[in-house]
Amino acid sequence: MKKNTPETEKFITFEVADYWFVLPMAAVLKIVNCPPPSQGGTVGIGLVQLGSHTIRLLNLHQEFGRSADTIPQQAPFLVVVRNPQKELWGIALDVPPDLIELPLTTFKPVSLEPPFDHKTNWISHMAIISDKEADRTLLLLDVHAVFQHRIVPQPVSP
Fold this sequence. Notes:
The protein is mainly β. The protein has helices spanning 60-63, 143-146; strands at residues 8-16, 19-24, 28-33, 41-42, 47-50, 53-57, 77-82, 88-93, 98-103, 108-109, 123-130, 135-141. A hairpin with a 2-residue loop joins strand 5 (47-50) and strand 6 (53-57). The longest helix has 4 residues, at 60-63.
């Protein structure tokens, strides 16, 4: 007799501005080392050049409340995703994301009614998982919802 095991999916997890985000691996094109500024890695102004591709950055640090003076000018890692219009976007990270596999039943949908901030609508589901030290709340970033709103890269003031 076959056990009824819940369906699982692979995700990457990463921390930005004291929040833990998750993205399904299916939404991630690549995770790469971010080039230094001398080679096109201008994270502070919201652009990274990777080969022949110019990648705009989604600044989660700024969007989720981190003050402008703590936004990294250079980040060693870049998560590359493609928006619904097939444009490349990146999420710059200070540390590499973790790969985890979770049952889909772990995630609970977030139902938000207006007048919530558009950033709140970027979160489609939440999950609470037990870590070694404590419980951790994971926010599932909805790539399609993120790009329904016009995002303008904001330069960081020196």
